Amino acid sequence: MSPQSNENNLTPTDMQSNEYSAAHIMAKEARNHSSPCETVDSMPWFGMDIGGTLSKLVYFEPKDITRDEADAEVETLKNIRRYLTKNSVYGKIGHRDMHLQMDNVCIRGRRGTLHFIRFPTSKMGNFLALAKSKDMANLVTTVCVTGGGAFKFEDNFKKEVNMNLTKFDELDSLIRGMLYIETTNPHECYYWSNPTDDSKCQKVPYDFSEPYPFLLVNIGSGVSILAVYGPENYKRICGTSLGGGTFLGLCCLLTGCNTFEEAIELATGGDNTRVDKLVKDIYGSDYSPYGLPGDLVASSFGQMNSKDRRNTVTKEDLARATLVTITNNIGSIARMCAVNEKIERVVFVGNFLRVNPISMKLLAYAMDYWSKGTLKALFLEHEGYFGAVGCLLQFNGESS
């Protein structure tokens, strides 16, 4: 995964990506003046997770369409489907993650393709304007949504595009979506081997067929940590406000960057040891009595109290130090939670990890080193989309 620009825009097709399910159902419902999405079988199907920083949209495109359904499909929906599936970038803010596309999956008895789209939550106004310009309300009046934005933007959806939001619990949707995708995609789960050695480091598939119990660390704008003992048996045990939103906000302040991708690109070229104070900076070497290696960060940004040091650091160094600071804090909290819950597998998810192998490798190393090999840090390919998938799976045709 390499840095990708977030400067892409959602076109109406973004939201309209769901297509034609039973086109004959759509035709029938158009005649009856009822909404296509007021029944569980009608298309289009969308799942949406509106986070504090990033909004995630999943669209199910059925492939098992009958001739009657194809003939009955309305032209507007055909155009939207064609636009959505033939493009990966929509205007200036919307982006379809083509590498995550899942083909030949089964949802609610239909077989098709899952598409994954993201855009900054700060651009919700643009998203709704595009949806309105395409008369989306004529195709769908109910959207499955989770995340804080399901409440924050509910009135906007209703007033601006005449759509109702069927809201689903954020954590329940997260787990449902994760378990569904992990079970459906045989290459979903992996870990990093030799995370500190660039010449040997690689992603290794991990068999997650018997997962319980596991710790689920969801890193979005903030962080929530769940102990999961079964598909419907979990508890939120901890969290921190220092998450991906913190990293991006601080990087914007310190370096003048504007997007997450820019911040990660800067961090990739930086050296945090020019910003942080290490154990060896204090003790001259390793601190053996407590098993602290010399290159361990003892004080994040600890060298920035020196004017001379401040004059020598670069934007890249500051971005790298910010990333290391946030990641180390998350890893420390996750490790303590795992020890307290007596859980050995820690699964890290969330869009903070997108295009961010630096943090993943730091987390992999930290879990292994500080637990003396008893904790395994695991990662998932679809990172931040599980909530959107989970609420799509739960939709039963009724509005909340």
Distance between the termini: 37 Å
Number of strands: 17
CATH class of the largest domain: Alpha Beta
Amount of helix: 25-40%
CATH superfamily of the largest domain: ATPase, nucleotide binding domain
Strand content: 15-25%
Shape: globular
Low-confidence stretches: 1-38
Mean of all residue-level pLDDT scores: 86
Q: State the major sheet.
A: 8 strands, mixed
**Number of H/I helices:** 15
Looking at the structure, the CATH topology of the largest domain is Nucleotidyltransferase, domain 5
Pathway: Cofactor biosynthesis; coenzyme A biosynthesis; CoA from (R)-pantothenate: step 1/5
Subcellular location: Cytoplasm
GO cellular component, one term: nucleus
EC number: 2.7.1.33
What is the gist of this entry?
This protein has helices at residues 12-16, 23-32, 67-72, 75-86, 124-133, 149-152, 154-161, 170-184, 244-255, 260-268, 279-283, 307-310, 315-341, 357-370, 386-394, and strands at 45-50, 54-62, 89-90, 94-96, 102-107, 110-120, 142-146, 164-167, 189-193, 202-205, 214-219, 223-230, 233-240, 277-278, 297-299, 345-349, 376-380. It has 400 residues and is of the alpha+beta class.
